[in-house]
C-alpha cells in the first residue's frame, strides 16, 4: 500500500518552472564561443572520429551549432574529415561523416585540457542559472498539511510535528533541529522534500567569470526523465539538454564537513572545478548533521551562513582569484545534539527562523515501533519483553528514542542466529542486546 502511494507521489512530480528552450544559435548559449569551441576540441580528443549526432549528444547542443563550430575548426586546420566508403548512392552521406582532430588539433586539445579538464555538456550562463533557480524557489508553491503528512507517513509521532514543519518548509528559512541523539532529527530532515510534489531543472555545469563549474552529480541529483537520452531532433519534443530534470536535491553532510567543501574546488586527481555543496543543493535541502563535530569551530561554520541566509545570495571565490555571487535559494537545516544556547549567540539564532526540538517517543508509539522493527526482521516479541524493556529504561534513565528498536532488534537477531534458537526476542536476549549496545554508564547508541 505504501509503495503504491510512493509511486503515485513520484508520478505527480511536475516541473515548477517552464522548461529551458533549446538554443538554436551560438549566441543563444550566452557563453563565449571560445569556451564552446575548446569543449568541442576536448570531446573530439576523447571520442575521435565522432559524427555530428554523437557530438550533439555529448555537448548537449543542437546539430546546427555543432556544424558551425566544426566548420570554424576546419578552417583552422584543427579537424580532419573521414567519409565512410560504404555510403550508398542516394543515401544521406552526412550520417557517415566522422570528425577527428588533426595533429595541430591534438596540441590544442592538450592546451584546453590543461586549462580546464571539464568534459561534458556545454555549461549554461550564470544569468540563465540564476533565473532558473529563482523560478524554482520552493516558496513559490506552498505545501499543504496533506503534503507534509505524506512525507512523514513512516515517522511515528509525526502528527505532533506536522503543524510546525509545514510552515517551516514554506518559509524557505533555515531550520535548527535539536534534541538528544537518537530522536530522529536527521531521519525527519531527509524526508522533508517528499512533501514537495515538484521537480527542478539542474544544469550539468555553469560558466562563471572564465571558469566552468560542474553542478550535476549522480550522487546528489536524481533524474526524473530521460530527456538526455532522447533521440528526437524536434525541438518542441525536448528541452535544452544542458539541463536535466531532477527531484529536488537533498544533500547531507556531517562531521566530515570542511570549509573547502563550501567553495569551488577540485581534487588532486580530478582537475574539474566542482560546485560547492550549497550550490548543488539549490532548490532543495542542505542538511548539516552533527553540528559541533566538524573540524572547524561552530562559530566559524555558522558565521559562514549569515550573509546567505539574510540575503539569499552566496559569494564564492573562484580559482582565478575572482569572486562571484550565486543564488542561495534552499532550505538549510542544522541538526545538533547541543542546545541552541550552546551553539550560537542570539543574533544568529534569530536568523535561523525555526528552532524545532525533537523529543523521545510516547510509550505507545515506542511499543508500536518495536513491533514494526521485529516484524521487518521476521522476529516475534516475547510476551514478557515489554516489562523487561520498560524496567531497563527506568533503571538507566534512557528515553524512548526512535533509534533503539531498530538497533536492539538488529543485535537481538544476531544473537538468535548465533545461538540457533527460536526467532523470538526474549527478555534474556533483550538484556544481552542492551548490555552490548550501551556503555557501562548506560549511555550509547546514536542518531538514526
TrEMBL record:
Residues 171-362 form the AAA+ ATPase domain. InterPro entries: AAA+_ATPase, P-loop_NTPase. It comes from the Bacteria. SMART domains: AAA. SUPFAM superfamilies: P-loop containing nucleoside triphosphate hydrolases. This is AAA family ATPase. It comes from Vibrio gallaecicus. The lineage of its organism: Bacteria, Pseudomonadati, Pseudomonadota, Gammaproteobacteria, Vibrionales.
